[in-house]
Amino acid sequence: MQIVVTLDCLDTEAQAGFWLAALAPLGYRRGFEGPPYLSLVGPAPAPTLLLQQVPEPKQGKNRMHLDLDFDTEDLDAEVDRLKRLGAQKISEEQSEHGFRWVVVADPEGNEFCVFDPPSSLGSA
Fold it and tell me: Which residue numbers delimit the VOC domain (predicted)?
């Protein structure tokens, strides 16, 4: 079984550039390409991120989003790295049940979280 997460976007090449750089610490690379799709593949068992070109821009809040654990306790440094790649910081650091996270958005406005799990859980 494989999990594929599909992300609608206006510009698959621009989004691929952002997401490949953002996911570089996790080992993602380009995979299948065939308009309107472009896939980004991580090492098993990581899910594939499938970019799908659509004609309309994002509207409203995501109904589903990615939570990314980059295995760092310095969330500010990770958010700063993502901002240099073109992300926008949406929220200040939040915490609940030992989890800490910051909400950011990719260049087309798709929200995702950068998080640090409680030390008792370790890295995801």
Answer: 1-117
pTM, entire model: 0.91
Indicate if the pLDDT at residue 124 is higher than 60.
Answer: no
pLDDT of residue 67: 96
Residue 28 to residue 40: CA distance in whole angstroms: 6
Query: Yes or no: is domain 1-55 CATH 3.10.180.10?
Result: yes
- What is each CA distance from 57 to 7, 38, 40, 94, 110, in whole angstroms? 12, 18, 21, 28, 10
Cβ atoms of 40 and 49 within 8 Å: the answer is yes
Topology annotation, domain 64-124: 2,3-Dihydroxybiphenyl 1,2-Dioxygenase; domain 1 (3.10.180)
24 vs 1, which has greater pLDDT?
Answer: 24
Both structure tokens of 103 = 């909400």
